[in-house]
From TrEMBL:
Name the record gives this protein: PiggyBac transposable element-derived protein 3
Pfam families registered for this protein in UniProt: DDE_Tnp_1_7
InterPro entries assigned to the protein according to its UniProt record, in alphabetical order: PGBD
The encoding gene: PGBD3
PiggyBac transposable element-derived protein domain sequence ranges: 1-145
Amino acid sequence: MKLCETVPKHRNFKIFFDNYFTHLDLQLRLLKKGIHTIGTIRRNRLKNAPLKAMAKELKRAGQGAFHVCTTAENNLCIVRWHDVVDLSSTYACSQPVCKVKRWNKKEKTLVDVSCPAIVKEYNKYMGGVDLARMLRALYRIDHRTILFSQLHHQCKKIFEGRSSNSILVHANETVVALKECFKDRPDERKWNPKPLIYYFNETQEICAAEIYKQKNLTSWEVMTIDKDVSNFQVCLLKCILNDECIAINYFLTKECYLIKPAKENYIFVVKDNSIFAEVLYCESGTLVDFPIK
């Protein structure tokens, strides 16, 4: 409540939470002060709200299915949307429902799925924090490792400690044991800008791509060439959907080269008026996970 003390009361101000802060009691207390709220919420804070279990009814119903609970006074709405995410709000609910495009893995095509108004509202204004992955777990680390957070691009070194020592690992972090270390293309990467982060509705993934400035690159070769590809991001998606592809070369003429690894002595020349980018990683996520900047 202290963080909201400077927010004007009864002036139609709205506060957006991630699930670290969202609590039904807090939302109702703020509503009494005329401050509306919306946020993703942890399931252990739902106070036995009769939402359908994801593993049962919603999963059988498929992508876009959702279930709604409201209080008797209709001043608090909770929506479970099969992406899967739980949201609660004191001003937004499920209606109106819009349509969004999602990738259907079985049919291997884009399909229309229902998107409740509360999800659209939240995605419109919230970004830059870890919204759906605040569950934590304790791991004991007994050897030299690194702790890497893909979402925040932070890397921490961890050294061997006593058996009683432990560290806190967030769900968006990865612990990797160091077996052998070597530099990967240091000369070719030294002028590269920071990786670009993209969210793909089609695969429901957040992906990072690194653009290369150097023109002569080792160990790459062309797999396929697609023409009339509308933009760089569409070309990148084609690569992500191909198991062998790990890089692209996109041209202003709308040509899209899908690139795969080659032998060390193979030199790939990046032509003028084109962009070469390597896919660094992709991880499952929804738009509410995407760090908008």
